[in-house]
Specification:
Blueprint: H1 11-16, E1 20-24, E2 27-32, H2 36-45, E3 47-51, E4 56-61, H3 65-70, E5 84-91, E6 97-107, E7 110-115, H4 120-131, E8 136-139, E9 144-150, H5 154-160, H6 165-168, E10 175-180, E11 183-188, E12 197-203, H7 207-217, E13 223-226, H8 228-237, H9 272-280, E14 286-292, E15 303-305, E16 314-324, E17 329-336, E18 346-351, E19 354-361
Parallel strand pairs: 3-13
Antiparallel strand pairs: 1-2, 3-9, 4-7, 4-8, 5-6, 6-7, 9-12, 10-11, 11-12, 14-17, 14-19, 15-16, 15-18, 16-17, 18-19
Length: 370
Amino acid sequence: MTDALRRTPLYERHCALGARMVPFAGWEMPVQYKGVTQEHAAVRTAVGLFDVSHMGELYFEGPGAAACLDSLVTNDIAKLAPGRAVYTVCCNERGTILDDLIVYRLSETRFLVVCNASNRDKMQAHFASQVRGRCTFTDRSDETALLALQGPKAASVVRELGGDPVLTSLTRMGVAQTTLAGISLIAARTGYTGEDGYEVFCALSDAGTLWDRLLEAGKKHSIEPIGLGARDTLRLESRLSLYGHEIDETTNPLEAGLGWVVKLDKGDFLGRAALLAAKAQPATRKLVGFEMVGRGIARQGYPIVDGIDGKGAPVGVVTSGSPGLHIGKNIGLGYVPPKLSALGTSIGIEIRGKVIEARVCATPFYKRST
């Protein structure tokens, strides 16, 4: 590892737990502890604990914060009630995606925006240039730790720690400033796994204590620490986009299947004109989910071809692919022409020079029952 890689406040704990550490977005992060398959299963069936302190935490505050933020993202922030969160994207003037975000409205005049670690510097500079005195903008990433407690038994772990009733009663996409295990924090009923759970923001100095207490309280619920490997397979089964894979500055949210977060009727926002123009034109490609019919695992960058006889031309590209560890199928996401996007359509995935059959299928590949 190079000295340039940053470490979260939990680095030593990850090493003590036997994590394999890898470079990720400029950070030295745990990719797995006991193995991706076991960690994936723990989150689907019990509960897992993630260190995601590499993510960015950006604050918009003041009387003009709501209007300012609303002008910079595609979803309707003005309608977001205090104590609620919303998923959105931030576009440039071309209508392509700078980053996907979660916006938490902590009060009438205070918002927390969480961005991807790989985009933190870009988004900090972008937002700072756009605010122009309309509100106070602060990057507090370097003073904030973020832990994610995910899985069907996540709420049980919180109750073991005597969680504030405000916290335990949070509904999906709810957020509250509260305490847990005697630690002041911001807790939200959000996550990136397709399961129930919490994302918890605390001071860097409290991260180790909170991590230890969550693991201890979760022992009777079969808790496991979870690395980035299982985080990726979990989000793919749940058909959650990953920046740099399904979305980036070459894609717009309409073709990426994120039209539901684009509120074109809310008023002007950065990229709206370009998105209106894109919506008025026939789509040239569409992001679809597929499951492998033949033997093989699709990986990011593999060509998608028209047909399965090996004679079809390349028409798209795989953006993500892996075994669906819970559903028992090899799955993937990729961009194809609209004519190949209908459910049940056979497509070919070129894997090491050989075309393997796949079939367009409904997504998410996995959806929890409750």
